[in-house]
């Protein structure tokens, strides 16, 4: 990425400006073009999800560039400790949100497309952690489990599950992501709410 190469030649002021520009960059990009350190299990590109329907034509993880930068920084921390992020869902075009809403028109399970979710803004990810062998850490429930057990504050979880969830939350929070109380897998980039809902669809080969 070009901004790294010009770092050393820049004055502190210009460098700061560049950093601000990067932090605010809302361009949609494909995560795999910026890092090879993630594991992907894009559930909505398969029928293995709560909708029992394949709603994406192909599995790609698009996000706004600022979300990608924050996610890569968080993943570097996990990698240092022997883990990495596995992704279940990233940016979700508004048209897809509408088709999900058609299948399950219940705001407890699907964000109302009239409001749009942070996934539609390119600032949310659904994730878990895997170890060196690619094995998912025990988070107490599967992804998209709609019950109180999926909540961060649910008390009847084993110590191991609580530790795994708080490990994920701690590092993500340190990298400007915000957790959602009811879903241990969902993280929003702090600044994403001010970004527009989008409907850009990515190309499939
Ligand atoms: Zn989510």
From TrEMBL:
Its EC number is 3.4.13.22. The record marks 92 as: Transition state stabilizer. SUPFAM superfamilies: Hedgehog/DD-peptidase. Keywords: Cell wall biogenesis/degradation, Dipeptidase, Hydrolase, Metal-binding, Metalloprotease, Protease, Zinc. One of its GO terms (molecular function) is metallopeptidase activity. It catalyses: D-alanyl-D-alanine + H2O = 2 D-alanine. Binds 1 zinc ion per subunit. GO terms for biological process: cell wall organization; proteolysis. Catalyzes hydrolysis of the D-alanyl-D-alanine dipeptide. Belongs to the peptidase M15D family. This is D-alanyl-D-alanine dipeptidase. It comes from Flavobacterium flevense.
């Amino acid at each position: 990425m070009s901004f790294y190469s010009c770092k050393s030649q820049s004055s502190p002021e210009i460098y700061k400006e560049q950093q601000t520009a990067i932090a605010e960059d809302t361009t949609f990009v494909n995560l795999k073009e910026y890092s090879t350190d993630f594991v992907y299990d894009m559930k909505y590109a398969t029928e293995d999800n709560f909708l029992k329907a394949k709603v994406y034509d192909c599995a790609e993880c698009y996000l706004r560039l600022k979300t990608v930068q924050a996610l890569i920084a968080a993943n570097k921390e996990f990698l240092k400790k022997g883990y990495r992020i596995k992704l279940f869902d990233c940016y979700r075009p508004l048209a897809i949100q509408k088709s999900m809403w058609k299948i399950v028109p219940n705001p407890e399970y699907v964000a109302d497309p009239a409001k749009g979710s942070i996934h539609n803004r390119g600032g949310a990810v659904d994730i878990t952690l895997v170890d060196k062998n690619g094995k998912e850490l025990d988070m107490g429930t599967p992804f998209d489990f709609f019950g109180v057990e999926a909540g961060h504050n649910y008390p009847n979880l084993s110590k191991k599950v609580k530790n795994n969830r708080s490990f994920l939350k701690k590092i993500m929070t340190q990298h400007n992501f915000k957790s959602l109380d009811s879903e241990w897998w969902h993280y929003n980039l702090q600044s994403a709410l001010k970004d527009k809902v989008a409907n850009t669809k990515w190309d499939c080969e």
